[in-house]
Amino acid sequence: MRKAAKRKVSYVITHNKDDHGHLLGINSLALDTTTFDSSGKPGGVLYSAGRDGVINSWDLHLSLRERKIPKYNYNNLNGIEGKKGNVKDDDNIPLHQFSEVKNWEIDENASSSSQPTPKSTFRQSFQSHTDWVNDIILCHNNEALISCSSDRTMKLWFPHKTSIPCTIGYHTDYIKALAYASGPGWVASGGFDKKIALWDIKECRLAPSTSSSSGNIFGGLSERDFQPIVTIAETSPKSSVYALACNPSGSVLVSGSPEKVIKVWDPKSGKRITKLSGHTDNIRAILISDDGELILSGSSDTTIKLWSLSTQRCINTFTTHSDSIWSLYSDHPRLKVFYAGAKDGLVTRTDYSEYEEIDDGECVAICKENAGIVKLVALDNKYIWTATCSSSIKRWQDVPLKKDRINLSTSSPPSSTSQNAFQIPSSSLIKLTSAVSPPQLITATTDSEVATIYSVAIDEGHNDIDNEDPEPVREMADHIIEGQHGLIKYVILNNRRNILTLDNNGEVTLWDIIKCVKVKVFGKCNIDEIAQEINTPESIPNWCSVDTRIGALTVHLDESKCFDAEMYADEAGLTGDVDIREDQRINLGKWVLRYLFANFTQEEIHTYEAIQQQRSLMQQRQQPGSEHRSLFATQLNVNIPPQAATSTTFTSPTASNQNSTNSKANPPMAPSPTTPLAAFTTGPFTAPATTSSQQPDYFSGPHHLNSPTTSPTTPPVMLLSLLPYNHHRPHLLIRILVIVGPPLAL
Amino acid sequence: MSLFKWIGMGDLRKPATNEPWSSGSEKYFGLENALYFCKPFRECVVNFPNGPNDANGTGENKAEEPSTSNVLSEDTLFGALKDLFWKISSQKKRTGVMAPNGFISKLKKENELFRSTMHQDAHEFLNYILNAVAENVMDQQKKIEELERQEQEQHCNISEKSKSSVNGASINESEESGISADGSSSGSSENTSNTFSSKTTWVHQLFEGTLTNETKCLTCETITSRDDPFLDLSIDIEQNSSVTSCLRSFSASEMLVHQNKFFCDVCCGLQEAEKSMKIKKLPNVLALHLKRFKYQEKLQKYIKLSYRVVFPFELRLFNTCEEIKDPDRLYELYAICVHIGSGPYHGHYVTLVKSIGQWLLFDDENVETVDESEIHKYFGDLPATGSGYVLFYQACDLDLSSLGLPYSVWANNVASSSSSDFEVSAEGAAAESHPIDIQLTPKLKREHRQAPVREPSFSERWILRKNNSSDKRKSNTDQDSKDNDENTHEKSSSHEKEKLSWFGNIVAEERKA
Q1: Contacts of B269 in chain A (CB under 8 A)
Q2: Mutating which of B221, B263, B274 best tests the A interface, going by the most A Cβ atoms within 10 A?
């Protein structure tokens, strides 16, 4: 039998349940424009992944319409410049079909006709990780979301189904980046363990509902699915993966690292195809064109480089930023329109989609955040969402593409002039100087038809803009999805019950980790001074550990020491009518666990009672045992809270009691789980809760229970004495319940 | 086994002034140490506070000076060192041998480490001496400040008188005791006070540089840096490398990853980071310690790495911060401490010093000239020939007045006492106890440049000394070897040329960097 894993119970004390904003910075964003809302049309859903371990989704309430014509002129995509005005709809053959799913775009008419875009509202939230979520990616036509985290796990979540996120992969260090190849149906993950792993998620398409009776909460997945199909491992200390990209067909995978070279991999074999060197610092953002030919990389050396994979050369170096490039975004299949976000907060859009020469394109400084742009997404050149290390997500109005501006100004439809006859001040334009080819004059051929007064103005601007300090077009964000203030520092007071915390707004707060409440808010002051002031000379054993890694207070109870601390009951601050002996003491760990698992205990009792009822019915009917079993199983799957099911495969005690040979014939079952659940209905387990305030309702996240593995071990001696039945190894779940049973008649 | 250790010490008199006695120019002493290990060292700079004592005195007075200084600072290592240097510098003979008994006994008294008969490490010794001297000087400075204040509080007139008396009649100084050294500071009291105010000593001003430890969080790209002062740079070495490449790997960035992540205050968590050591302030005198003695995990003991490490005669430090004042500062090699022997626990130290354009090899009581083209023998590919262990580079643009050092004192010193301008170049001659000899070399580059004029006379003198040397055996072998050298000179010249051109490459490379 394998050695039992160390068991640990953690719980998070949250304070503001009504506000769903992130507590800490946002690390990743993902945009879904295909999911229908209640009105029967998609309104846009934005997913945000925070450093607080939470993934939120937000309803954007955009007015979208079905996209009739592809966004970009695909004739140009193959490098063959189509003649202006000659392009018919028939010629617009996408390189990669829009797939079976319809595409949606911003409905210009709807949006221009009226008031500003409505504010985004909260949709869903899941705290599925216990550390920073570093990246999220949508797959399966936006039905599934995959997240990766510094807690070294990768999770899959079906946001539109009632399921909980399920771990689908592990790395041995922080997982930093994800890339999804829709064609072959795998997701690549890159981590600080210098590994890139490919995970087959085709099977994950299975909806949880189809797997109802298997006892596994996530039907299609079992242990073996946790193996990556391909693993690429590197050894250099600088080869931690910071950026990862692949094309939809999954033919090429590219990665960026502090090694300063872009590595190009063949996902099938895991072999390196080539490496592209030229950057002089960490590569933190990378994009690849749909055909896998062009690579765009953003580096901490402040440059963005465009590479051709077939020639293995750098085609162009964009020096449009003066600070580290942290994020890139493009929805153009050939990356001819792309957005870049830098450490200094500047977001630019570079567009050379209509030109043969990159230098002829334009680069617009769109907005400037207060902090580095960790991630940005854009929609239809209409909106940009930016994520920074602050907990708010900002939405900015994009500016129309050059061709759109020109079309508008020439055709001038009266309906949209007010909004779209948009002039970009020359101070917002950044000159595209090419390091590869000398600047060239704009040739008349490409511009002849669009040479309006307006475009001339832009060209003039081009000539005398200073690259140094562009003025962003947008000074103010269009809309802000506000975040909250997360905790960044803590001090454990000597009584091991009160914790002082400091949030990123500078506020100091005192907490009670047993009652799980805020005791006092000190406001903005020095946390260490307060700690000195209010600390007591007590000396209580260290029964728990605390951290604020995810911006909220997290308490960890470790099996080995969580029962070490006791306090006098009359000093515990109990309220209500409690009869306490003078010298009666409370074990803090047991006290907490008792209430953490109160709901669970209750549920178990109900389940057991239901089973008992059924059993008596069955016995009356004299039916074969095998049929009981399936019935029980069904019943259990309905009732058991998810954490029970994820931690063990539950077997009915009555079934195995009834037929011991049966349990032998079923090795996966826990051996002889004889402990009757009925025991819980009497004795210490029914002790009334003395303080209702101690009933924490934070027990919503099943992930906080780091479920023990399925190998039962002997419980601590102290606990054995409490067991009503100890002649057999108790079932794991039950043992946890025994542990949480209150030792005192409180 | 009682090994008699001999320490050769070279002492160059400053030619800079027109003072009559300066014509005495070079003196070479071998200091003889009868103990069976020796840790001699010398620090001519130490003489500063002391020097002024005879500022007004003539060369003849010098013999008396040591006694004065003894009275002043007998109780410190610094005092002992000062005595030693005084003795050397005040010798009337051009050549000779001197046993640094007083100093060694003091050293042993002060530091338990050096009390045993073990051979000592030259680098450790250098470190200890520099720190101890700096400490002593600091104390003395404090005392002086106090005394000065007291004096001022009393009668200005009287103090002036006393000062003049100090200056005038050094013999009478006994009453003044500790003060004399400073009172001695003579004309330059203002300068000294300036120096003191900076809370550093001239030891720091000469040897101290600043290393900065930069850590860049790879997530938020915030750079946190911490500055550390250093008196010498210890660098790891590799086989068949050069000082330049060793310095490069010294400053190469280190990744803080996996279990060793960096707690970033901005990110409020553990993140990957890149750490690198860079030089933020260049020292005036760079003591470069090559880590030739390394603990080998496998063998559970220290071993000597007799790797060949090429060191250039001219060095530019490239691993500097961006905001550094003078990144292209050129350093010139002026002293090499060489360890001979294959093991870490025993061996022999000799020192090469460049004095007035001429390389001199100090081997216990023997001093001989070495051709510059022979220096490559000390790169260290063979244990037998010895390998460079501590290299002393001096900034070419070293300007004493810019140091904030009491220049007038210096000048006086130069004028009066020959020893004042010497630098510590330490090396021991002893075997296992990495015996250490500190040798004096001229502090001023300018003098080097002036030197060629005198050079011939110097070598003549040297030969003279050689002939007079009491150690016949030694001189014979030397002579033989010299003859041999001359014989082989022609043959090896092409080889040397190659070497030299390689030097050129190194320098060029450094400049590029």
Answers
A1: 51, 131-132, 150, 549
A2: B221
Q: Where along chain B do its domains lie?
A: 6-197
Q: Which of A676, A672, A688 is nearest to A604 (CA)?
A: A676
Å from A238 to nearest chain B CA? 7
Nearest to A473 by CA among A366, A340, A363, A396: A366
Q: Of B293, B481, B300, whose CA–CA distance to B387 is shortest?
A: B293
Nearest chain A Cα distance for residue B250, angstroms: 17
- In chain B, which residues have their Cβ closer than 8 Å to the Cβ of A370? none
Interface size, chain A vs chain B, as Cβ–Cβ contacts under 8 Å: 36
User: Taking 50 as the threshold, does the pLDDT of residue A531 lie above it?
Assistant: yes
Angle between helical axes of B243-251 and B472-512 (0-180°, round to 10): 50
Q: How confident is the model at residue A181 (pLDDT cuts 50, 70, 90)?
A: very high
Cβ of A343 within 8 Å of Cβ of B272? The answer is: no
- Backbone dihedral angles phi then psi of residue A706, each to the nearest 5 degrees: -75, 95
A474: DSSP letter: B
pLDDT of residue A196: 95
DSSP letters, A35-85, are -B-TTSSB--EEEEEETTSEEEEEE----EEE--S-SS-GGGGGT--PPTT
β-strand partners of A57: A47, A124
Distance CA B229, CA B234 (A): 13
Q: What ranges make up the beta strands (E) of A419-525?
A: 429-430, 479-481, 487-492, 498-503, 507-512, 517-524
Name the pLDDT band for B305 (thresholds 50, 70, 90).
Answer: confident
Q: What is the mean pLDDT of residues A580-599?
A: 85
Domain ranges of chain A: 346-371+382-483, 598-740
Q: Look at residues A126, A129, A136 and name the one whose alpha carbon lies nearest to residue A152.
A: A129
ipTM surpassing 0.95: no
Residue listed under structure tokens 């003279």: B464
Asked whether the beta carbons of residue A489 and residue B268 sit closer than 8 angstroms, the reply is yes
pLDDT the model gives residue B285: 83
Across the interface, do A324 and B221 touch by the CB < 8 Å criterion?
A: yes
The better pLDDT of the pair A448, B337 is held by B337
The distance in angstroms from the start CA to the end CA of chain B is 50
Amino acid (1-letter code) at residue B296: Q
Candidate from B221, B258, B268 with C-beta closest to A173: B258
Q: By CB neighbour count within 10 A (0-12 exposed, 13-18 middle, 19+ buried), where does A91 fall?
A: exposed
CA distance B88 to A493: 65
Helices (H), B381-439: 400-403, 407-416
Q: Which among A151, A172, A389, A503 is the top mutation candidate for probing chain B, defined by the most B β-carbons within 10 Å of its own β-carbon? A: A389
| A352 within 8 A of A318, measured Cβ to Cβ | no
CB contact under 8 A, B272 and A150: no
Q: Regarding predicted confidence, which is higher, A105 or A199?
A: A199
Burial label, B343 (beta-carbon count in 10 A; 0-12, 13-18, 19+): middle
Report the relative pairing of strands A186-191 and A195-200 from DSSP bridges: antiparallel
B274: nearest CB among A173, A258, A489:
A258
Q: Which residue of A has its CA nearest to B259?
A: A173
Q: Which of B269, B272, B274 minimises the CB distance to A192?
A: B272
Residue with tokens 């490239």: B318
Average pLDDT over residues A14-41: 84
- State the burial class of residue A726 (Cβ atoms within 10 Å of its Cβ: 0-12, 13-18, 19+): middle
Tell me the CA distances in angstroms from A512 to A493, A714, B113, one per residue in order: 10, 32, 55
User: Closest Cα to residue A475, out of A394, A380, A571, A532?
Assistant: A394
C-beta separation of B11 from B28 below 8 A: yes
Whether the pLDDT of residue A462 is over 90: the answer is no
Whether B221 and A258 lie within 8 Å, measured CB to CB: no
